[in-house]
Structure formats: structure tokens, C-alpha cells
Automatic annotation (TrEMBL), chains A, B:
It comes from the Bacteria. SUPFAM superfamilies: FAD-binding/transporter-associated domain-like, FAD-linked oxidases, C-terminal domain. It comes from Desulfuromonas versatilis. The gene is glcD-1. Residues 36-215 form the FAD-binding PCMH-type domain. Its cofactor is FAD. The lineage of its organism: Bacteria, Pseudomonadati, Thermodesulfobacteriota, Desulfuromonadia, Desulfuromonadales. The keyword Cell inner membrane does not apply. This is FAD-binding protein. Keywords: FAD, Flavoprotein, Oxidoreductase.
Amino acid sequence: MLEPRIIKALEEIVGDKNVSTEKADLICYSYDATQQKFLPGVVVHPGSTEEISRIMQLANAERIPVFPRGAGSGFTGGSLPTKGGIVLTTERMDQILEIDQENLVAVVQPGVVTEAFQQAVEKVGLFYPPDPASLKFSTLGGNVAECAGGPRCVKYGVTKDYILGLEVVTPTGDVITTGGPTMKGVVGYDLTKLMCGSEGTLGIISRIVIKLLPLPEAKKTMLVLFDSIDGAAQAVSAIIAHKIIPTTLEFMDGRTIDCVRQATSLQVPEAARAVLIIEVDGDREFLDKQARRIAEIIAPLGVVETRIAETPAESEALWQIRRSVSASLRKVNPDKFNEDICVPRSKVPEMIRRIDAIAEKYAIPIVNFGHAGDGNIHVNIMIDKKVEGELEKAEKAIEEVFKGALALGGTMSGEHGVGIAKAPYIPLEITEQSAAYMKAIKKALDPNNILNPGKIFLDN
Amino acid sequence: MLEPRIIKALEEIVGDKNVSTEKADLICYSYDATQQKFLPGVVVHPGSTEEISRIMQLANAERIPVFPRGAGSGFTGGSLPTKGGIVLTTERMDQILEIDQENLVAVVQPGVVTEAFQQAVEKVGLFYPPDPASLKFSTLGGNVAECAGGPRCVKYGVTKDYILGLEVVTPTGDVITTGGPTMKGVVGYDLTKLMCGSEGTLGIISRIVIKLLPLPEAKKTMLVLFDSIDGAAQAVSAIIAHKIIPTTLEFMDGRTIDCVRQATSLQVPEAARAVLIIEVDGDREFLDKQARRIAEIIAPLGVVETRIAETPAESEALWQIRRSVSASLRKVNPDKFNEDICVPRSKVPEMIRRIDAIAEKYAIPIVNFGHAGDGNIHVNIMIDKKVEGELEKAEKAIEEVFKGALALGGTMSGEHGVGIAKAPYIPLEITEQSAAYMKAIKKALDPNNILNPGKIFLDN
């Protein structure tokens, strides 16, 4: 519990109704998508940059940890108040401040929900590509803090690639701006990209300057069933080798197909051991030709069946198989560890084989799908925590999955970040020397270790 | 002069023939494209990461400043040995280590010349887009350190967008790797992008992991003459609004055209007060249609003449007008300050008007061309340093140009960096608080201030 005078000081900054110590409220802000729970001492809802700055100044003076939070949809516990203290939510700061149609730049507050922003820019013919699965509720501030990805990243890049500038409240409460509305800029160190993916440990994002693209005229969806994961992986490489970068190249492995087949009425032939959902976008009249070219290119690679959508409704039907995965998995086992390793694209089949071997070794179902074009595999380790020993087995399996990805030149996380969930595994990927440099940066910016302490590096 | 024991220690690290204190050699490494000169105490040519590491350890132990250098083609003095000490060149580390055609990733040493690398990847159907004007001699290590740009950046982005990972020798001599060969990765802070554009002040780049694209099948060049800079600027916005992002959107203002007309035999009608060179790339059969669409879109915007190249030779002829600019300028005045401000695209005409007013105020010719699609204007302030008072006038004019760009939401530099040339103007763009954070990062990584001291921030 925080002392009453601290609560009073916070109320003076943001107003009584924007500070809560009610048990019910604290519980609401105690968890995220990891389903771990840590109760904060207080939840504060600032309405302005100035208020965030004053909260950080108070927190530094009183040495109270602050945990910034968007929508709490993260998969690695980046927003969890692991040391109590203050949860600082950006929910009230949810305004789209500007959409500059001439320069293809938008300025937003951090609490804007990703999908709401996408719809707003699409209404005027513009396009914000990053599309994390959480986009219906995740906020742009959270997306920037985690450097969110999504299916479209194979063609369009990740959140970081669209962030031109930021206003940031530093861990000590200063307000700085980084970057700006220009397409280029090389004056001073790139604090913008440093903040992207720093998981709320180096600053609180209070305003975001976003680069937009023209909205593609149309898109076309294909669903291709392969007789092996190798065929699907070769198809990905072959398409790109033919100078086509599709908007999405989503894959599902054989185990995922089995889950979907068991749990739904979707028709998937037994011979299908891998699925690719391929979407291309651009000039309408060019798309039919591209879809035909793709079908030709991949034909020799063990294709069981190709379905090409001719209408938006047909496209939606093809995506149904992908969208049914989450619900299907729940029928396998109640608890899920959702990892998101990333390997060089060509290593996907080898990685899937390694994961299959790990699943067999520990007798745990592991189901894989994700972004084949990026080599970004969502590894779903399905257990029942109530069964004794399952959790321990899962933890061992996860470590082996990470080691396998790293051995293939990959990374433990393509999109989800480290937070607390992957922090224990950090030494597998980041050498002590690299970690020392990262911690030195954290210490330089946050000398009192107030902002989101214990994240990424547990000893930070 | 450095003590003989230091020279001896350096010779032990890199071998006798890779250390030079000969006056002629010192002079060769004393200048860059700024034409300022600072004599180093010694020039060292390491051949490996290990050797760079040992040099940095020695330099720290002895408190000798180290100035890393690629080809010395920078425009802002980033590689100049302003405090004597050691010039560390990466010329010997010039190997392309790998071109992974399946994953579209290359690994190179820092001394590889940009154009040589582009040719090597194009030979196997791949593409490295960043194309700084210096590409025939500049090195990839230097390109990364400065975050080089070029005409193609409007479509393809800058150097930073292609750097997936680095091996870096830190200022204290540790060797760390950042990022890796995957398309995504969010584990730990993004030291890769922090190093990009840090102008050799935060680490010495010893290996670079580069993202490649499939080489576009073909390109098509158009040259369009406009009766005003406003028409050209509107054309840029109109093309992008029609969902076409050309590969290049290069512009030249009226004063540039006058210079070219006077100095060459190129035929440019008197009515032309602005030029756009527009290039589109992609699928061959799509390009004719795109060129026609562009011609239609821009027709109402004061077009004096449109020339569309039908062959590579014709394309080369159209580029001739742009390539003749540098030589033409020399006839205006012998000395040139070459700035590269960047403003939001729509502000280009307003910025050109401001520059014209500044040129008139100081009675100095200022000639503008550059990358209109990015709003990145190369501002060439032409003087004769031998004429008394001209240098002072130029300096005042430069400051006014910077202030004008910043007032329009722009930046002092889109591509060239700060180095020492723009360091005195840093307070115009970077607030004291932001600067404090940048300096804190420098200090955290380089506690003895050994690596490229006094760059970007003169007091760093």
C-alpha cells in the first residue's frame, strides 16, 4: 500500500476521479495476456503529457516504481506491476490529433486503439500496415513500446518502420521530442527507434508521429494446402525469388490443421500437412495476374489444393481457417504458452522438425502457425497446468525451443518482446557484454530505476 | 605526436605495414568532403574485429582519441581527427562475407564500397536500394554510421531500413553483436538502429548484416519541366495521392536550371522553372501504364514539357541534366556549402521561397535540388572564400536556412549528419533536455570519451 500523502499528491496532479485504490480497480490493472497477476498500489489515469511528467517527478522523489500500460494485451508481462507501485494507464489519452493527407503523416496520442486508427486513415484513402492480432483493443502506445508486428509485416515492415517521431516523458520526468514529421532526419542519436521496442522501460510515450502509405486499391487472397511443411516453405522462397512480395504469407503446420479439423466443420483434406494463406495487394487489374503467377510458381511443390477468392466474402471464408485456430487450440488443452520465435525464412522446416521432436520428447502438444514470410513462428505449447509436472515440462520445452531457434540464427521473439516472461532466458540470446551496454543505457536514462523496473533484464 | 611506445604497441596489434606516421599518409587521412583538415598522430589499418578491439583497449588505457574512417566521403566532418590521435580506417576489411539468396540477407565487412556491393547482389538478381551520391567510393560501414540516403529512398527508405544486425566494437573495446539475420527481432534494446546514424561516436562497426530485396525487373525514367516550383511540388503530392510511389522524385529549382543551361549544351526551355526526374520500377509491362498515368496526373500542373525514356540510353540522357549540376555549380563560384535540410514534402515550395529570400538578403547564389519525394533539399550556398566577408555571409545564411527548415517542421539534415559542420547549430534543433539524454548514452557507452570525441555535440 502506498502512503495516503502519495495518493493525495497523485490526485492533485490528475484529479480525484483519475486515481484509484479500490480493490476492484487494482485487480483490473493487475494482469495482461500472460494471465499472471501483480497488484499495483494505485492506478493513475493521466490526461496529458504534463500530468505524466509530474507523476514521474513525484515517483522519482519518492522512489516509487511506475508501470506504464496501454490495453494490457501484451503476451510477455511488459505492463505488469511486478513491484507494486503505480500503474500509469494511457487510456484517457486517446485522441487522433492530426491526419496530414498531403504528407502522409499522422499524429496521435498513445491511447488510440490500433484498429480505430487504421479505420480512420483508411477512410481518407491512407494505410497504416502494422496489424498485431490484438489490434481491436491494443493501443498504438503499446504497439510502439513493444514494436508490434502482424501478418502484413512481410511486405510492409513492423511498427518501428512507421514511427517518425515521438514525444516521450523520460523516466525522470523530462519531456523530450524525438524525430519529427519528415521522412528523413539524421540529427543526433535515433532515440525514436531506441524507444520502439524498449517495452516501456526507457520512457513513457506521450505522442506519436506516424508515417502512412497510400491505401492499396485492392487485395486478393489465396489459400494453398501442401502435402508437407517443406513444400510450403519452398513456396515462400520461390514466390519471393520471383520478385513477388505478398502482403501476407501465413502458415499453419500439420498439427494446427488437425486441431482445426477436429474442432470445426471446415473441410481440409487429410493429405494437407501445411497451409499457406497468401494475400497480395495493389493495383486491382494486376492482382489476378499475380495470383495466377503465384499458382504457377508453387504448383510443383506438393500442392494438394489451391483456393483463390474472387470476392471479399470468399476471401473472408479463406481466412476462417486461420481465425478458427485459437478456439480450436483450447480444445486440445486449457493452458497455452504462446512463444513467437523467429528464424531465417529458409530454416522454418528445420525449426518445425525440431519443435516436433521436442513435443514428442516431453509428450506435450505443440502447435505451430505464424508468419512464414518472416520466419516468425508462433509456437503454442498446450498444457493443463492442473496436471502435476506439466508446467515444468512446458518450461523445459520452451527453453529447448528457444535454444533451437538461436542455433538456427534466430531470435526468441519476433514480435512479443521479453517483459518478464522471457527475461529468465535472456542470457541464451544476449551476451553479458551486450546486456551490460543495454543496462548502461537504462541506467543513464533512469538513474533511480523507477520506470518499469525488472523488465527485459530481471536485475534492471 | 604520439609517443613511440604507442606506435610500437599499435604495430604489434596490426603489423608494421598497417601503421603509418609518415607525413604524406597523415595528410591523406586528414580531410574529407568538407575540405577541412586535421592531422592525426597516426593512421592504423586493422584487418579484423579482434585488432579493432585491441586498438580500442590500448586507446582507453592511454586515453588517446580514436577517429574511425570509411572512405572519408562525408559532408560533415564525421571522420575528421579533430583532436589528433588515431585514425582507424576500415579499408582493409572489404570482404563480402555472404550473400544468402534464399533469405535475402548479406553479411559484409565495413570497408566494402557501396557500389561494389550493389553490383555483387544485382548479379544474383537481388537489390540493395540505398544510393548515396558517393556510392562509387563510400563504404557500407560509413553509410551505416551516417545512415546514408539517396534518390531511391522515397520508395525504399534509408540505409537504416536495410540493417538487420551489426557486430560492433564498443568504445571500450568490447565486441558485441546486435540484431541478427532475421526479418524481425524484439529481444533487448535496438542497439542496431542506435548505431545507425550515430556517426561513429558510439561504436566501430566491424560487420554488417544487410536485408536485400528482389531486384525490380525494369525501370522507366521521365523528365518533366514545370513552369514553377509549386507545380513540381504539387505533382509530387498528386502522384503519391494516386497511390504511385516512384523510385525517385528528384527535383531541381529554377536557379539550378539556369546554372545547367549556362554551363552545358543541354536544351532546357526558358519557361522551365523546375524539373522533376521521375523514375518508376517494377514489372516491365506495368511501367508504361504507370508512366502514362503519371503524365495524366501531372498534366494540369504547369507542365512545360514531358520527356519519357524508351530505352536505357534515353534514360541515361535524361539523367544527364541532374548529373551535370555539380560541375555547373563550380562555374558559379568556387566554394560550396552543401546543406541537406528536410521538410515535410508539402512545404518544399515555401522552403524554396524562404531560401530565395535569404539568397537575396545576403546577395549569395543559393542553388537547390534534391529529393522532392522526401522533402530533402540539397541547399548549395555558393561563395568565393577568398572574397572578404563572403564566408561570414554564408554562415549567417546557413543559420537562417536551418531556422527556416525547423520553423516548417523540418530538420537540419536528412542524410549528411551533424559531424562538426552542423554541431554548432545543434541547439537550434535538439533541446537541452534531449541533448542531455543523448550525451548520457554516449557517456554510458564511452566513459573515457575515446571514440570520435567532439562530434555531433562539440562538448561530447
